[in-house]
Amino acid sequence: QVQLVESGGGLVQAGDSLTVSCAASGLSFSTYTVGWFRQAPGQEREFVAAIRRGGGGTYYADSVKGRFTISRDSAKITVYLQMKNLKPEDTAVYYCAAGRGIILSSLFSDRQYDYWGQGTQVTVSS
């Protein structure tokens, strides 16, 4: 059974950096794509970044490109989201998600992911 557990969220100031982690079990990065999504109060969940199964190609939302970096450690079965130059608008609950067989054009859709973590809160103060 696939399980995802996020950690590392917290309260930071604008301009700070923070790394959140997603510890996975029951899956292999050779077959599962892992994505990060976020949801702010009163807003819909939105795509942040993804790292594709196999070769590990990375993809980002325009709003975080150049500031966030997604990576993975196959030995630890953990995916990281390194966030730099954080802005108040980055405040949200961050979720990691995993799915099999996700084609490139569907990476950004939360409907393509089968398994979700419980989320970790990131709050950026101005």
Brief synopsis:
This protein has about 130 residues and is mainly β. The chain has no helices and eleven strands.
Structural class: mainly beta
Record field, number of beta strands:
11
The overall pLDDT average reads 96
Helix proportion: under 10%
Rg from C-alpha positions? 13 Å
Terminus-to-terminus distance: 40 Å
Largest sheet: 7 strands, mixed
Helices, by number, come to 0
**β content, as a range?**
over 45%
State the low-pLDDT regions, or none: none
The gross shape turns out to be globular
Pattern of helices and strands: EEEEEEEEEEE
Keywords, please?
mainly beta, 4-stranded antiparallel beta sheet
Please describe what this structure looks like:
With 126 residues, the chain is mainly β. The chain is built from no helices and 11 strands.
